[in-house]
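Customer ticket, subject: "Can you confirm the structure for Sodium:alanine symporter family protein?"

Message body: Hello, I'm evaluating your service for our small team and ran a test protein. I'd like someone to confirm that this is what the system normally returns, since I don't have a reference to compare against.
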Amino acid sequence: MLVLLVGTGIFLTVRLHFLPWRNLPHAFKAIFSKSKGDSQGDISPFQSLMTALAATIGTGNIVGVATAMVSGGAGALVWMWLSALFGLSTKYAESVLAVKYRTVNANQEMAGGPMYAMTNGFKIKWIGAALAFLFSLFAVLASFGIGNLTQANSIADAVNTTFGIPVWITGAVITVLALLVLMGGIKSIGRVCGFIVPIMAVFYFLAALVTILMNHANVAEGISEIFRMAFSVKAVAGGVGGTIVAGMFQSMRWGVARGVFSNEAGLGSAPIAAAAAKTDHSSRQGYINMTGTFLDTIVMCTMTGLVIASSGVLGVTDAAGKTLDGAQLTIRAFSTAMGPAGAWIITIGIALFAFSTILGWEYYGEKALEYLVRSTKANKLYRLVFSLVVFLGATTTLQMVWNISDTMNGLMAIPNLICLLVLNKSVAEECFDYQKNILKRNKKN
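Agent reply: Thanks for trying us out. I re-ran your input and got the following:
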């Protein structure tokens, strides 16, 4: 799976003449620029990106990075970066196809994503229809797992551990909040995500930056350890790296895995939000949504990784002699500089990150269900059920659901990556056509 994910990213990067890399500055500029000409869609390009980021920036940025660095050593962070660089092209391509092949549903809303690209873009229709059915089915199942139950469970557990609030109270609060937002549909989700996501991202970034600066004496050694362990055949961490033992291939495996599943490049989820954007060219929205991968992994995951690498707690054990991992490791890392406030910061971060993920994934699941039943009539019922399931997730221990959710996420990627490879010519045509427009505009300016 990881070879297919990263391999597709490498192929598309070369196929597109490295334009997703070369046009990254343009992509960030386009987030706040207005489309020229006829711009069809339901929400602004910025709101579309924020909805996609709401689903990707989540517990993976806090828990996933820590897990990768414990299992794969500090060097796993380097492999997260490399997977994200090639993931830019993957995220660009799937978003381009989502806009190019989107349609308008019975409610006069945009409906798009990999399932519509497969249905409308494949020359052999039955193959496209079969892959679209599988993708949509896996997306609906994943929405209840990784996009709902596990997120609610993370919020309730963190709030209970830090503030002592019973899980049922937390579950009831986030269920009501989710219901209020989700019943308004994509426009309501877009407005809320457009408000929450920038705030939570800046809040966490600044908290991590303060922690890194307070541990500045260890930063150079931490960065050195990251690169040393990333490319050593068998490396034993020392100093700030604790007692972690991990070779290059172990770092690669965990870094790529956590990177891909954090930014979701290649899974096919984010393009569903891209399809709702008001835009005059599919490539414009492709570039805008591509920045989500950069912000998620290159920026947010890096900040968590540097906090852990400079804290000296990587490889530390708890009272029972078990190596600290996941959220507990990240909390300990922040606490080295900020004391008890470190636990509060991570708890607030998990709560905001996970709640926004619930909102983003509801939209993905709703659109996948809409494709399966070929009707919008079930949408409001789905929103209601999805909101109620939040309470179940908050009040139940769900290790099995975590495992099933990871599997469903992985299964989503298979038909989506096949779609990207089959329709790479369509992506390239859109990319090169838009490039000509960029060059013309630059010459005029």
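A couple of notes from the result: The beta strands are 103-104, 110-111, 235-236, 245-246. The mean pLDDT is 85. Feel free to reply with more questions.
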